[in-house]
Amino acid sequence: MAEVYGRRGGGDGVLQTYIRELSQMPILDPTLFTRTQAEDLAELFSSVASRPTLSTDEELRQPDRQALDGWAMKYMFGDEADIAGRAVERALRDLVMERTQRTVSGREQQQKAVRRTVFDPAPLAARVLMDCGVQPRLGDFLQEILGPALEVHVPAHEDLPARLGDSLIDQGHVLVGDRPLITGLDDAHAAAIVALLTSEPRFSGTVELPLDQDAMQAAVKQWGKRWREWKRDIEKSIKEVLPKASQVQRRVLVARELEERAGLLPQILLSE
Q1: Which residues, other chains included, contact 191 with Cβ-Cβ below 8 Å and sequence gap of 6+?
Q2: Residue 112 CB neighbour total at 10 angstroms
Q3: pLDDT-based confidence at 102, cuts 50/70/90?
Q4: How far, in Å, are 150, 192, 250 from residue 186 at the CA level?
Q5: What end-to-end distance do the CA atoms of the chain give, in Å?
Q6: Closest CA to 218 of 144, 133, 152
Q7: What does the pLDDT look like over 37-76, one tens digit per residue?
Q8: Is the distance from CB of 99 to CB of 56 less than 8 angstroms?
Q9: Measured distance CA(40)–CA(45) in Å, rounded
Q10: What is residue 272's three-state secondary structure?
């Protein structure tokens, strides 16, 4: 609110807002609440106010912050609360990113020099991930498949890409790096494990898969199509925010940051 409505004071400190201007701001007016609404809001706010404020990216991921913001959006926008909430969050992230890239000292030449040499990919990676969503997981495509299940144990393994064996010796094997991780599976279920470890590369433990090979093959195919679409969306979004040829290294840095946030292996996404 201060950024959008405040009066600029020559770059010195927080922007000023006068009391008479408060009515122009689209913020909650507690004098209009019912008693129940006031109590609900006070409880939600107390949870947030009782702890230190975190960085914007971390703060927006906190359950108590999400509950408070969700309540306020529902109050102000009703059925459009989710859409409005995402729009406000994107605008807030953009604003914070802009503010963190410049100081209030008025030293423009110094600012430009700093921006040329220092680049933080985290805000852009967070924005891209928020716009495109998290990666599709194989489990998303198994929920409606009924019938007998096959339990497959995935042992602990190195953080390396998973792939199917491609020779007569290792056919039906799931390899991590060049080492067999799981052997003895049919092609459909081996492909399912590779799909699982592509989107969740650090998974280990027991997973239940449909026993029917045709159903398993169809689910892997659906996942693969959505996975490729998601990767294209991510890469397109990165290039939209950093379109210049001179920004190629920054695009790669954003991709690496995004992979870390999504729990993916390095170089799964954009590589230029």
Answers
A1: 164, 216, 217, 220
A2: 11
A3: low
A4: 12, 10, 42
A5: 39
A6: 144
A7: 999 999 999 999 999 988 888 888 899 999 999 999 999 8
A8: no
A9: 9
A10: coil
Q: Is 219 exposed, middle or buried (0-12, 13-18, 19+ CB in 10 A)?
A: buried
**Helix and strand totals (H; E) in the chain:** 10, 5
CA quadruple 27, 29, 32, 35: dihedral sign? positive
Contacts of residue 116, defined as CB under 8 A and 6 or more positions apart, other chains included, come to none
The Cα 199–Cα 57 span in angstroms is 23
Taking the C-alpha atoms of residue 112 and residue 128, their distance in angstroms, rounded to an integer, is 24
> What is the signed CA dihedral for 112, 116, 122, 125, rounded to 10 degrees?
110
Structure tokens at 96: 């914070």
Verdict on whether the full-model pTM lies above 0.70: no
Q: Are 196 and 154 in contact (CB under 8 A)?
A: yes
Lay out the sheet containing 174-176: strands in order across: 162-164, 174-176, 179-182
Rounded Cα–Cα distance for residues 10 and 22 (Å): 22
Give the side-chain half-sphere CA count within 13 A for 224. 12
Query: In sequence order, what DSSP letters do the residues of 136-204 get, joined into one string?
Result: P-GGGGTTT--S-EEEEEE----SS-EEE--SSSSTT-EEETTEEEE-S--HHHHHHHHHHHHHSTT--
Cβ pair 257, 122 in contact under 8 A: yes
